[in-house]
Amino acid sequence: MAYSQRVYRRLPTEQPNPASRDIDRRSAEDIVRIINAEDAKVPAAVAAERRSLVKAVEALAEALRSGHGAVFVGAGTSGRLGILEAAECPPTFGTTPRQVRAVMAGGRSSVFRAKEGAEDDPVDGARQVAKTALPGDVVVGVAASGITPFVRGGLARARRMGCRTVLVTSNFRASVPEADIVIAPQVGPEVLSGSTRLKSGTAAKLVLNTLTTAAMIRVGKAYRNWMVDLRPTSYKLRQRGIRITADLGQVSPRRAEKLFDEAGGSVKAAVVMARLGLDARSARRRLQAAGGWLRKALG
Q1: What domain count does the chain have?
Q2: Are 259 and 119 part of one and the same domain?
Q3: Are residues 201 and 267 in the same domain?
Q4: What angle do CA 176, 179, 183 make, to 5 degrees?
Q5: 243 and 103 in one domain?
Q6: Which residues lie across from 101 on neighbouring strands?
Q7: Which residues are catalytic, by number?
Q8: Taking a C-beta distance cutoff of 8 angstroms, is the pair 274, 255 a contact?
Q9: Reported pTM
């Protein structure tokens, strides 16, 4: 899957940015101002992709409801963003390691040391997806250029396996038959031409934030705007869980801590115990009957 110089020359991510043409002659203050001005364009570019994002959110939510999950696939900065997303979901939303996973070109060592040539191997992309994804999962490829062979190979294999596929890219011209849904914020040329860890990376992070957060909300991982499925794996998260229990359970912090501990660190169970006067076992049963939705469990 080799592309010609002409293809690369036409990529939106490879174009020179007129605003930074003479940036090497500018003061530190001017450089910061230019970068800030370019970064400010990113949120609007992501918002313009709202319809595609909604489709991806619903696809992921449907997969999660059905017992499936998400797999992020990428190389370089894009791959690291996928890994970050997969790593953050368990403590934030109480997901299992199986529900949100990520594969990166070059393997684990590439997270900390760049292996740029690894992105050119579509066969390895297909192989890694085959080892990680299961039919029914949503496989999300992240590739600023839209043509990264590792990602395209992974998406193609995912489709053959019966997965829904999504591509997050900064190349609005990309023709990607391997992707069911394409999310392509038009962020414009980078301050340093081709350095897609800049605006393209920021746009991809915003897209992934929205995708996972919205999907998790849609499957009951939040109540109001509280993360009620968090895992208290640190002192900070434990204290947050107790505060949420006190607020939603309408009890004192001391009572909230006792209920939280009795519930085994489950905010949802502790809140049901507080509001309905149930013991931990009965609270868990009520939550199970409500499909894990705290709002339904409270009645």
Answers
A1: 2
A2: no
A3: no
A4: 85
A5: no
A6: 71
A7: 88, 119
A8: yes
A9: 0.92
Q: Write the DSSP string, 171-200.
A: -TT---TT-SEEE-----S-SSTT-TTTHH
Pairing of strands 138-142, 70-74: parallel
- Other beta carbons within 10 angstroms of residue 168's beta carbon come to 34
> What is the C-alpha R_g of the chain?
22
Can you say how many angstroms the Cα of residue 77 is from the centroid of all Cα atoms in its chain?
14
Q: For the chain, list the strands marked E by DSSP.
A: 70-74, 100-104, 138-142, 164-168, 181-183
Do 257 and 159 fall within a single domain? Answer: no
The H-or-E segment that residue 288 falls in is: helix 280-289
Helices (H), 99-192: 122-132, 149-161
Give, for all 299 residues of the chain, the pLDDT tens digit: 556 666 667 888 899 999 999 999 999 999 999 999 999 999 999 999 999 999 999 999 999 999 999 999 999 999 999 999 999 999 999 999 899 999 999 988 888 887 778 899 999 999 999 999 999 999 999 999 999 999 999 999 999 999 999 999 999 988 899 999 999 999 999 999 999 999 999 999 999 999 999 999 999 999 999 999 999 999 999 999 999 999 999 999 999 999 999 999 999 999 999 999 999 999 999 999 999 999 999 99
**How many helices (H) and strands (E) are present in the chain, helices listed first?**
13, 5
Among the candidates 190, 218, 246, a domain finishes at: 218
Based on the fold, state whether residues 283 and 186 are members of the same structural domain: no
For residues 84 and 184, membership in a common domain is answered with yes
3-class secondary-structure state, position 204: helix
Residue 123 structure tokens: 């066969």
- The residue with tokens 């992070």 is 205
In a domain, 116, yes or no: yes
Q: Helix or strand or coil: residue 92? A: helix
Report the candidate in 221, 234, 236, 232 with the shortest Cα–Cα distance to residue 268: 221
